[in-house]
Amino acid sequence: MVTQNTVTTILLMIRSPQWTAARTTSSRRLIRPSTLVRQYRAAVWPSYGITTPVPDRYPHSKAPFCFQTGYALCAKRPSRPFPPPFLSPPSSSFSDPLTTHYQSQDKRLSVRGELIRGLNNGDDAVLVADNFIGVNDGVGAWATKERGHAALWSRLLIHFWALEAEREVDKTSKLDPVEYLQRAYEETIRATTSPNEWLGTTTTVTALLHFTDDNAGNAKPLLYVTNLGDCKVLVIRPSEERVLFRTTEQWHWFDCPMQLGTNSMDTPRKDAVLSEVQLEEDDIVLAVSDGVLDNLWEHEVLTITLDSLKKWDEGPYEEKDLDWAPPAHLADERMVFVARELLKAALAIAQDPFAESPYMEKGIEEGLAIEGGKMDDISVVVGASTGANPPSGHDHGFEPLQGGQSRRRALYQQAHPALQSDGQLVPPASRLDMFDTRPSFKCPRLSTREKRIRVDVDSPNSNRPSFLNATRSRYSALMSQMLSQRFGL
Fold first, then answer.
1. Band of the pLDDT at 168, cuts 50, 70, 90?
2. Angle of the 177-191 helix axis to the 150-167 helix axis, nearest 10
3. pTM: predicted TM-score of the whole model, two decimal places
4. 3-class secondary-structure state, position 236
5. Residues 261 and 140 grouped into a single domain
6. Residue 62 dihedral angles phi and psi, to the nearest 5°
7. What's the number of domains the chain is made of?
8. Dihedrals φ, ψ of 382, to 5°?
9. Is 251 found in the same domain as 315?
10. CA pair distance 396, 355, nearest whole angstrom
11. Are 343 and 376 in contact (CB under 8 A)?
12. What are 1-19's pLDDT values in tens digits?
């Protein structure tokens, strides 16, 4: 005789270890497969900030344009601790943090005597500076290897790329970010080979803000975008309410993007794609990991970005309206607000086992029975193109002679006592319940099924809703038939 527990165990093996079967006290019958519920839960609290840490002696650009920046991060799980020699031991000073919490650890990460640029978000790494932004997505499968460390690979690659970009920060001629990436790739290989070998691979996307002169000799912002893999850059023009530019994902096959690192045949010179985008002031540049665009369609990203900008500009706000942040008083937090709204929307779909998502759509096209969002490291970096001399009362941190980043951090610490020295905002202790990562985040624009499945009339997938429903019904029927045949249920 087949018991309830035996059938439940077999069913769980058929589906996935992430699925659990609902039970009731009034019935001992097996619940239909359609009522199985995945338990998604992010392992790390969301975090956000303006720029990533830089050393005190940092080369500030004298270019006529810069980014007004913000980022928001949420990791699927904490990354592995960085091994020596990358993690320096704490000093004997009582002011030096002894905790191994990832934010404190980031302050002590160094390679060859240099502070490692950027921040880790699980296996992702992000870079946020006045004139460049970037997101690397380390391949999490390396966590199963004894010496696998995807977070180290993604962080070192973006660090060495940043060093290359900083060396030519004031170069007036044409830049070559692909060559920066090639040299960063070679440096990462050397750093992870000696004295100990660390394995890993990562995808990468970077956006470097430069300038060019028009026919009248006036400077115009120019964006260099370098992409390899499935992280993406989107350029949004709010004045026209459209996506001006998007990178194209690069794949070997489904769920296996092009990547740099151990045993990979991909290289920057051969496979990286360089794009040049003419910007206007106030254009929005988004650099995101696949954890965003596996859960949100592009038109949703556009809508959320435009609505966030409008909501911020209309202000003022009460503290409850800002959800995860203290009240905002400075213009720089505008981009933090946009990044946070995108993160919340992506996280809500990622935690919903019944949501319809781009990742689900791709899986169905490959013949895979995938439903719901995809829980992954979610990294959002936002930069707004602006002039180097912003209007009075707005400090964008672009003061090469006075240390713009240091001054900006000082201003923020005055406004927000919870601001850390590395540029991250820490939520007040009384609001830690806002960081509970159960599926509780609400996004009114995405709350109805009609908006989740909205497609253009001329789209080749305009019949997608009925197609998804039919696929789901067929899958449920096949599961029921298989259980009946095997177990007589």
1. confident
2. 130
3. 0.70
4. strand
5. yes
6. -105, 15
7. 2
8. -125, 135
9. yes
10. 38
11. no
12. 445 444 444 333 333 333 3
